[in-house]
Amino acid sequence: MFDLILRNANLPDGREGFDIAIRDGRIAAVERGIKAEAGEVIDASGRLVSPPFCDPHFHMDATLSLGLPRMNVSGTLLEGIALWGELRPLLTKEALVERALRYCDLAVSQGLLFIRSHVDTSDPRLVTAEALLEVREKVAPYIDLQLVAFPQDGYFRAAEGEAALTRALDMGIEIVGGIPHFERTMEEGRRSVEALCRIAAERGLRVDMHCDETDDPLSRHIETLAAETIRFGLKGRVAGSHLTSMHSMDNYYVSKLIPLMAEAEIEVIANPLINIMLQGRHDTYPKRRGLTRVRELMAAGLNVSFGQDCTMDPWYSMGSADMLEVAHMGIHVGQLSGIEDKKRVYEAITVNSARAMGLEGYGLEVGCKADLVVLQAADVIEAVRLKPTRLVVLKGGKVVSRTPARISSLTLDGRPEVIDMGLDYLPPA
Ligand SMILES: [Zn+2]
């Protein structure tokens, strides 16, 4: 007797027609034709059943603040930072909590159940940290929320940047952030990487820095981050987020840099939506794309994941908590159009990001947590093409969201009366 059985599921690795049985919040069996009773049976009808989406890079303190106190006119990263600086003194804990909870509702409906959010620690009031720590507690039954202490205005550059970041860690934020390319000078940026890695090593914490989010090919803080990771014994516990300057770097230099990053086991987190929107803004034509070198980093064995970064905030007016939208953009901007490329991109928003976040019990093996999503698509290739409806979302074996399938009724003479985008347009096998 099981609590729930998902029948006739296609799995992300391409296996078809499997049943997934759940007991006590865990996956108890993954087999064809399970002959057993269950409290509830859900028929996946030959659709993809996947572990949930994981967003390894987000800003939950800024989300859904679009238009407050005004819009970003130039659309640049720097105006976004200035605009956030205008909004920050006006922030209240109540409003931050309310916006974050509303965002998490949307995330659940999109099958997004694991989120790492940076939390701006530049305002020494730390109302952002207070609010997000409360949100982390409140959403724990349905979303695992990790928090990064993020000195948006610079660890050294902001008036009380160092003290405020330390206080945020003392309050219970569990990851050390940074923004070396925004410090006053390259040298200050280098020193910030060293200081922040030292803090992480002393406290036994992970590191996740906004690193080289610029088109300047000489912004090379990732090199320092890799070297300090090795020096402080932090291998496999340090993430470099964005790394957009790598797009513009000299190829010879990159041929030395990528092996160093691999040696340090750096977690690479690219943010395709934001990178294509914000990078290249100072170019005329041709305009650079700005996405880091995803294909080359994956080929070198680095764990590359994709984050969403923003939804409706000072930096990005779009977004919908949809990690398949992130994957879709990543495929385009990174020119990752091959079948194997697309499979790797699906991994970048699921298993790779779970690994970057250090999640345990994530996946479809027996014994893993019964966190699952049924999609209105047959396989991962179709999922990244269609960004389909998340029909059912399970957390710990319990249904936390249902969405009706998108089925269109047509009134065209001599044409089908109904089409299901998720199953009717499969390419020939
Ligand atoms: Zn970010």
Automatic annotation (TrEMBL):
Amidohydrolase domain mapped to chain residues: 40-400
Family matches, as CDD domains: Bact_CD
GO MF: cytosine deaminase activity; isoguanine deaminase activity; metal ion binding
Biological process (GO), any one: cytosine catabolic process
InterPro entries referenced in this protein's UniProt entry, alphabetically: Amidohydro_3, Metal-dep_hydrolase_composite, Metal_Hydrolase, Metallo-hydrolase_Enzymes
Alphabetical keyword list: Hydrolase, Metal-binding
Domain of life from the UniProt record: Bacteria
Identification of the protein by name: Cytosine deaminase
Source organism phylogeny: Bacteria, Pseudomonadati, Pseudomonadota, Alphaproteobacteria, Hyphomicrobiales
